[in-house]
Amino acid sequence: MAQNEQKQAAAQAAIQHIPVGCIVGVGTGSTANYFIDELAKIKHKIEGAIASSDATAQRLKHHGIEVLDLNNINDLPVYVDGADEITEHLHMIKGGGGALTREKIVAAIARKFICIADQSKLVNILGNFPLPIEVIPMARSYVAREIALIGGQPALRQGFTTDNGNVILDIHGLQIMNPVELEATLNQITGVVTNGLFAKRGANTLLLGTDSGVRTIT
Ligand code: 5RP
């Protein structure tokens, strides 16, 4: 199966995990886009969606799916999103598409996080994919220096502004042996809005598209 077919297969499998009548949290990226296209087929069975980015909100609306305000929601049964890297412990690097902060907010509220991914995303150790950090623009150089002190090589994502008006530093050269600890450490740096480690709140289930079908890891 080609990579895109694996993404689509994972997205199709996620539909089985959507309770009837619920509000669905929806992630960002090419795999999440496949999920939105599948969700459109059952849109009459859901109450609406919470979008993790402007791009996702646009795609949901294009399909006629109502996009709700997270501030009016008390309970979010499920959040479906992709990842840039994920381990068997269901810790992730996210933010390749730059939507990490809103993704983390939606994930924090969701009772269940279902990660959908193609098999290339499953890794033993996180860090080969540069770790994205959303930073307040005036703190960019300071945060970059602090990251260098802990052994990372930060690179400003050129020509990119997040939905929240901030910049992204992508940290290269990390081998992340303790994702929960590093996630907390990075969040302590003044000027950091969020980092792309989803470890304290990882996924609950991974639906992994592979050459031999969709593998479920919980
Ligand atoms: C966006 C993300 C995406 O989930 C991640 O980049 C994976 O994207 P794709 O499904 O296109 O491989 O975190 O901020």
TrEMBL record:
Substrate binds at T28, G29, S30, T31, D81, G82, A83, D84, K94, G95, G96, G97, K121. InterPro entries: NagB/RpiA_transferase-like (IPR037171), Ribose5P_isomerase_typA_subgr (IPR020672), Ribose5P_isomerase_type_A (IPR004788). Its EC number is 5.3.1.6. GO terms for cellular component: cytosol. Pathway: Carbohydrate degradation; pentose phosphate pathway; D-ribose 5-phosphate from D-ribulose 5-phosphate (non-oxidative stage): step 1/1. Keywords: Isomerase. CDD domains: RPI_A. The active site is at E103. GO terms for molecular function: ribose-5-phosphate isomerase activity. Gene3D superfamilies: 3.30.70.260, 3.40.50.1360. One of its GO terms (biological process) is D-ribose metabolic process. The keyword Isomerase applies. It catalyses: aldehydo-D-ribose 5-phosphate = D-ribulose 5-phosphate. It is an enzyme of class 5 (isomerase). HAMAP family: Rib_5P_isom_A (MF_00170). Homodimer. Belongs to the ribose 5-phosphate isomerase family. Catalyzes the reversible conversion of ribose-5-phosphate to ribulose 5-phosphate. This is Ribose-5-phosphate isomerase A. It comes from Nitrosomonas cryotolerans ATCC 49181. The lineage of its organism: Bacteria, Pseudomonadati, Pseudomonadota, Betaproteobacteria, Nitrosomonadales.
